[in-house]
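Structure representation:
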Amino acid sequence: MKKSTISSKVSTLNAPSKLSNLYASIIDQRKFSSLSTIMWDEFSMSGHFEINGLENFIAAMQQLENYQSTMHQIMNVHGAWNKSMYQGETYCVASHMFEKDDKPYKLDMGIIYSDVIEVREGTAKFISRVFSLKWQKTDMLDIPDKN
């Protein structure tokens, strides 16, 4: 069993938090092909945009290469299971670091994802997420000196 796969009845209860944290880690490490371990092939994301299919979503994530780095902070994860389907929300602050005029900046985004997770043959994965941007702010960063 792959380390990032969520399976078994016991871990299904914690699957939404685990999947959300794995999503953040995969995105921040830019291991986009690993998204297949937490998303079904027919995964879709909607909200400010519409992306259908895991392959299309992975391709869209390549735009994050425009940033020096990202840091996703997962906060509240709550929802309910109905048999093999979960519906809930995940709160996230996503920071995107970049340079402008030779100075370091970050774009922070306050996001609420409306998640649907499905368990198939004992494995839980995202089937869809609705991206709801609640706020955003760009600030100059204070970078500590490298000693």
